[in-house]
Amino acid sequence: MPVIRPFAALRPAPDRAADVIAPPYDVLDTEEARTLAANRPWSFLHISKPEIDLAPGVDPHAPEVYAKAAENLKRMLDSGILNRDDRPLYYAYRLVMGEHTQLGLVATASVAAYDANRIRKHEFTRPDKEDDRVRQIVALNAQTGPVLLAYPDAPEIDRLLAETAGEPPEADATSESGVRHTLWVIRDQRIIARLTELFDTLPALYIADGHHRSAAASRVAASRRRSVPGYTGDESYEYFLSVIFPHRQMRIMAYNRLIRDLNDLSEPEFLKRVAERFTVEEVGSPVKPEAPGEFGLYLGGRWRKLRIKPDPIPTDPVARLDVSLLQDNLIAPVLGVADPRRDRRIDFVGGIRGLRELERRVDSGEMALAFSLHPTRMEDLMAVADAGEVMPPKSTWFEPKLADGLASHVLD
User: For residue 7, which of 28, 108, 266, 364 is within the disulfide window of CB 3.0 to 4.6 Å?
Assistant: First the structure.
């Protein structure tokens, strides 16, 4: 089977995209979603966060929540807010956030390729989060949250997408966060066939965001293979909803760290320990690291610039990541946070929230110190995935985010 294939997308009716699109389900809590969807009856949050339409305090994973999602999807279909294309197609999707632009392809990606590691992972998944996505897919009989994928250098794919984006779009809407989402439909069968062929020649695709969604799609496919009579391998559930961008266009922002205490060290003792493995320079302004191996430290109302000393830098693709260098040389041995997945003394702040958020949380007394990091590079993510290894927790923060509701994949 090909690594990607076209599909008949479920899309907002003309001029309805602005009413429908919503942030990804997993970047909002229930109350944030309820506020954002207020007075917006067609917001996709009624499908992706359906607990907002039930009594406050309901368990977001209760059976009635998934049933409400299905009810809301049916309501949007019956009202003509969402319509399904009449044949399998591809779609070009452009994101614009400030000065940043990225243009990719909306397609369905092969579960078989995912299972065979041709669509490569870099994160562990949690069973409870997988279970949630499985229940959502089963309740809706559709995949509504796209997996964010990256493809390596492929100039002809870039060119075909750019040519498509030169035509008038079929959906163009700006989200409440100021990100512009534009969609074009690719109907030319020659271009569709060529894109399928070109993607099939690539050595791999890479999951950037959406590990739980892709894992859930694989589980649903495995279950249906066993239970659906007349299985052929060509069924729609053998593919999962994806948006695939060239890796060079994708933007990763830093995932910064906050620690609650100094592990019973005084400030001078702590700084002395830091200086064993880092050079330390006091600076008068917030530190936004400009290169790998450089870190900002905010402690006691002052910023310091740290640079890792070259001798401990390993060659392993995971161990050489900045998040690993900081964890292995400072956060674990000095501050005593050995397991950042579970230790409640550490917290993480996505870079889009800025360095002032680090200052605020330290100055308030909630946290003792903060570290700013240089963003992980896409090439580093791909190297980890190629090696079959796993990134440390909270290594990447992708911006801009995809919109839910712009295109969904119905499982026939």
Answer: 108
Neighbours of 346 (CB within 10 A): 21
Distance CA 244, CA 321 (A): 24
Structure tokens at 408: 């969904």
Q: Is 57 left (phi over 0), alpha (psi -120 to 50) or beta?
A: left
Query: pLDDT at residue 21 above 90?
Result: yes
The 10 Å Cβ neighbour count of residue 105 is 24
Cα separation, 258 vs 334, whole angstroms: 14
- List C-alpha distances in Å: 114 to 109, 240, 241: 8, 10, 12
Domain(s) labelled CATH 3.30.1760 in the chain stretch across 255-374
Q: Given the DSSP bridges, would you call strands 205-209 and 180-186 parallel, antiparallel or unpaired?
A: unpaired
Confidence of residue 351 (pLDDT cuts 50, 70, 90): confident
Sequence letter at residue 167: E
Q: What angle do helix axes 155-164 and 189-201 make, rounded to 10 degrees?
A: 150
The CATH number assigned to the domain with range 255-374 reads 3.30.1760
Which residues contact residue 128 at a Cβ distance below 8 angstroms, ignoring those fewer than 6 apart? none
If we measure between CA atoms, which residue out of 310, 321, 313 comes closest to residue 387?
321
Q: Which of 192, 186, 148, 195 is nearest to 167 (CA)?
A: 186
The one-letter amino acid code at 4 reads: I
Q: Assess contact for 368 and 259: CB atoms under 8 A.
A: yes
**Pick from 240, 248, 93: nearest CA to 161:** 93
Per the CB < 8 A criterion, the answer to whether 340 and 392 are in contact is yes
pTM: 0.92
Model confidence pLDDT, tens digit, residues 110-161: 999 999 999 999 999 989 999 999 999 999 999 999 999 999 999 999 999 9
The DSSP secondary-structure symbol of 89 reads B
